[in-house]
Amino acid sequence: MSSSEPPLAKLNHHNKSAWDELYASTKESVWGGSPVGFLAQHLPLAAALPPGAVLDAATGEGRNLPPLLALGRPVTACDASAAALAKIPASLRQRVALVESDLAELPLPSASFGFVLLCDVVETLPEPVAVLRELRRLLVPGGLLLINIPGDDDGITGIDMEPAEARGWLYRGRYYYRFYSRAEAEALLVEAGLELVQSHVTTWNEEPHPHFRPDAHTHRSLILSARRS
Ligand SMILES: C[S@@+](CC[C@H](N)C(=O)[O-])C[C@H]1O[C@@H](n2cnc3c(N)ncnc32)[C@H](O)[C@@H]1O
User: Fold this and answer.
1) Mean pLDDT, contiguous 10-residue spans, the chain (229 residues)
2) Which pTM value belongs to this model?
3) Domain ranges, residue 95
């Protein structure tokens, strides 16, 4: 990283390092072993998807891989953090292709995925539109992106957060966060060239996350699905 790096790129660089150090700091699973609370309700039926593989974009420690594998298609899991990928349980690692990469530059072929999940990630990205454009590139025409984007009324908003240098917030001075209104969230997808299919607000509870968030909390996110037309 050079000192002349633009502020958002610098934030992205520091942010990715913070996540990697978090995963490496403990053998415990930071996000727990169960899929995120909104997934079962919003996972499309495989029959409703066009042909193509499944991508868990920024998979973390892979908590959402079991329901994705149940779709019965080849699954790829990517993350910028090598430490996160190393923590995916062996039973799941054997069944997925792993890719260590920034989400904005994925070394994966265009138009190869029928379904992409981006779970608990957009709010952590200083430059989300670049990532959404890259995910659009990977989708087959008609392919679906499922994504959650927390609003200002999410249970974690403002807790231990200070303004970041460029925009958004830093949680504990290290992890980038930004919260979006419904209009802003939908505009991100449209700016990335995706066609909005549906969006609605969902609430779910999370247990504490070891070494990251000490208290149980409630998330309130917009869940959006969008299509590459
Ligand atoms: C809050 S975690 C969510 C992990 C996982 N999707 C889940 O639901 O358990 C955010 C993840 O995004 C990854 N991440 C953040 N910025 C990234 C980037 N620019 N490229 C790739 N991964 C990134 C982090 O390493 C981290 O694993």
Assistant:
1) 74 96 97 95 90 98 98 98 98 98 98 98 97 98 97 93 91 96 97 96 95 95 96
2) 0.97
3) 7-28+50-227
